[in-house]
Amino acid sequence: MAHAEIDFGKASRAALQDPQLRANFRRAMDGLMSKRAAQFADSAEWHSMRALGASVRLRALSKLPELLEKLEENCTRNGITVHWASTTDEANAIVLEIMLRVNAKLAVKGKSMVSEEMHLNAFLEKHGIEAIEADLGEYIIQLDHEMPSHIIMPAIHKNTKQIAQLFRDKIKEAEYTEDVDQLTGLARRVLRKKFMNADVGISGVNAAVAETGTLCLVENEGNGRMVTTVPPVHIAVMGLEKVVEKLEDVPPVLSLLTRSATAQPITTYVNMITSPRKDGEKDGPREIHLVILDNGRSKIYADEELRHTLRCIRCGACMNHCPVYTRVGGHAYQAPYPGPIGKILVPQMEGLDKRGAMPHACTMCNACVEICPVQIPIAGLMNRLREEAVHPGPAVKDAGAQASKAEALVWKGWAATFSSPTAYRMATTVLSAVGNAAPASLPLLKEWTSVRAKPRFAGRTLHDLARDRGIPDV
Amino acid sequence: MDATRPTTVYFFGTCLVDLFYPQAGMAGIELLQREGIRVVFPQGQSCCGQPAYNSGYKDEALKVARAQLALFTEDWPVVVPSGSCAGMMKTHWPDLFKGTPEEARATAVAGRVFELTQFLANVLKVRLEDKGEPVRVTWHASCHAQREMGVTDEPKALLRQLANVELVELKREKECCGFGGTFAVRHPEISAAMVEDKVADIEGTGAKAVVSGDCGCLMNINGALEAGRKPVQGKHIAEFLLERTHGTR
After folding, report:
1. What is the pLDDT, as a whole number, of residue B105?
2. Which ipTM did the prediction report?
3. Contact B194 A472 (CB under 8 A)
4. Percent of chain A scoring above 70 in pLDDT
5. Which one of A59, A152, A314, A339 is least enclosed by Cβ atoms within 10 Å?
6. Any CB–CB contact under 8 A between A396 and chain B?
7. Which residue of chain B has the CA closest to A400?
């Protein structure tokens, strides 16, 4: 059903034609890659760290249902109210209900990709509640009514000049400046007022500790701490895979996360939230709510291979190293999660009908696999989804939606030819004799020759040459 | 004589070499032969199965891979002049054959698969004597040679043995050229942007030739060099090494 399909091809072509966008991404990704590499300069340390990170995540996934129950139990004991949402609609409704109960008009938000998954801002706006992004990057794109183009650096597609113009156009008291400190100071002044007046703070969760009922949140701007401590109500939203078993699992995960994401051994702020304000305490929210979202994750979890998608700690390093993402940027994917992790996660969440193109937007170069801090076999999972896309089955939503009789027939013919030495010999003899006469306008050749010369059949195959030279066959 | 040094190897030429770059295949065979290795080229061979495997058609990939597996009856090393096809056989065949009667055999053969330069440098420890004129070249590392076969320095070490060859490395040596099999035709514009960047990087080195060990990359890069009327030429490392050493040791 092509009508529902998101057109990655069209969006990527548009992105490729924007030289400013391409330059912004190239420069940013180059910088991120080299800084990250410096964080893991010691290869033995890198290998042991990522093995530890992977083992923490694998252990958590191996007992996910049990850990989630334990998390709920310990959060509840700590005074954090836990809510379960199987869909983004349910999650939105839960957030709204809390807001309406406390008569909230203004929410300040820390960075949260799950809230992007929920389209929470638009939902709240529809219900007359202003939700303002307090992370600088998120604030910038919210001003411009855009989606994040990167899960860690949401405004990475913009350069300083573009941000200077945006601030001048959208913020009343702004004067044009390209001075980064002045621009940051301006956003800070605007946001300060919002923090003081907000009824609710909304945040994401980087890791939730089952044994202690602790929510961990890393950030660099202090906005996360403001969001989770200043307003009287704090609502945290998290995907159900974010749980870890023990407190001691947190340091390796966070260390891999921050080094991989922003090349920092630790972020400026590390928030560990374990309860609302207690009697006699002078600050902190009166209420904390944790909304745990499924949105297709249980289905992903049910398949033993696809489950590894859920190891992800959302560092974004796979994006930084992806040669496709680097060329087209995050918006081309039209999804909350772009780049390699998006290409395996989003089709599983939204279905292979709508997202069947995503697993093919990849050269299988394995650059992401090489740097993933928790060793997710991204290329292998990409391949699995390519298989699911053309074969109906129960494992993935809308599996088989991309099946085409013509394509299946081509591969059947290919297999018949390439598995029979006689047929292969005949085919290569014909191709060698007449293949070069094929017009460049033929399908596939047309795409190939858009920037490349036609490949030339050599005329005689290696099989022929080997026979001529008497190379033994057995 | 080194006891671990094999006397006979299978040569798996790959379908791209077979049809488009047979000279590279022959050069690979000759490089092995002149080291005293008996090279067997099973005439029944065609393709490792990767095109179907990466397109979601595993049954079809298995059918083709099975026909190749049947050829390797002796426990000789299988030498492949392509990091990508070698990577398919070494890292993906065990998965592809999982649960089939040939699983154990496929895993055993996978363990004996070598990319050509890896075999020349690490197993045969070849010594090359350069007989060519001074020339500047650059090296294009294929993604699968690097990341599936773990072949990173072997080909460059071979090039560095050549006294008159100046090797200038690419700025982004590890970055994909944009081929990606069917990716090049499914997403031609992105692939084009990638290969254009690769060509610019190659030109930036001032090299006369770009040497590579994978014909998929070479087809892509050479196609773009030719379409852009660039004087630089892409060459398979087997052919380049053989030419520089005039076919003799």
Report:
1. 98
2. 0.97
3. no
4. 99
5. A59
6. no
7. B56
Contacts of A84 (CB under 8 A, 6+ apart): A292, A294
Contact: A466, B26; criterion CB under 8 Å: yes
Q: Which of the residues A16, A308, A384, A418 would you substitute to probe the B interface, choosing the one with the greatest number of B C-beta atoms within 10 Å?
A: A418
- Reported as a single tens digit per residue, the pLDDT across A96-114 is 999 999 999 999 999 999 9
As a whole number, the mean pLDDT across chain A is 96
CATH topology of domain B128-244: Rossmann fold (3.40.50)
Token duo for residue A227: 């969001």
Q: What is the pLDDT of residue B4?
A: 79
Per-residue pLDDT tens over the stretch A322-335:
999 999 999 999 99
> The whole model's pTM is what?
0.96
Which residues 180-239 on chain A approach chain B with CB closer than 8 angstroms?
Answer: none
Instruction: Check CB contact under 8 Å for A388 and B183.
Output: no
Report d(CA B40, CA A270) in Å as an integer: 61
Question: Are residues B18 and A360, on separate chains, in Cβ contact within 8 Å?
Answer: no
Does the pLDDT of residue A140 top 90, yes or no?
A: yes
